[in-house]
Amino acid sequence: MQIPLQITFQDLPHSDALEAAIRERAAKLDEFHPRLMSCRVVIGEKRRHKHQGRLFNVRIDLHVPGHEFAVTRDNDEDVFVAVRDAFDAAKRMLEDVARLQRQDVKQHAPPAHGRIARLDADRRSGLIETSDGGEAYFAAENVASPPFEELEVGQEVQFLLELGKDTLLARRVTAGKHRFGGG
After folding, report:
1. DSSP of 66-112
2. Could you tell me the pTM of the whole model?
3. Is the pLDDT of residue 108 over 70?
4. Which domains does the chain have, with CATH numbers?
5. Spatial CB neighbours of 168, under 8 Å, sequence gap ≥ 6
């Protein structure tokens, strides 16, 4: 970190143990983004709830080149749990920002195209003939639109193909005007 860590206690007495835990977790943030510029942690006790006891709030403000963001975690009864959860969320955000900056974003496979080959209304499932002549199984809960009951044999669909335990599975099945046969 280029700017030293800042820790602020609000409506909460200073705790050396808590400060040490925060410093330890903040030191590890550099592993998740190589150019972390600053980190500010504000920890406080929210108004007491008569049935829940003490509630804590942790806010972490982070700055990396081109991005500033904050993570807030509320309502944890254990201040150390609140700190842990906030830093876990901060790590995920830093990883996402670093991945975007490297342009290392996961590319999703394009949807596959096929035609409804069979429908089983009793089992609420069916088979899709894929454009390469294979078959993919789908269940009614994998149909995005129209509803399963409105599908017809021969209808063209697009879907995401997934490898199941023993068969190909079709997810997010959508009927409409799609090209069949790869052309």
Report:
1. TEEEEEEEEEESSHHHHHHHHHHHHHHHHHHHHHHHTT-PPPPPPPE
2. 0.54
3. no
4. 6-101 (3.30.160.100), 112-175 (2.40.50.140)
5. 130, 134, 135, 136, 137, 161, 162
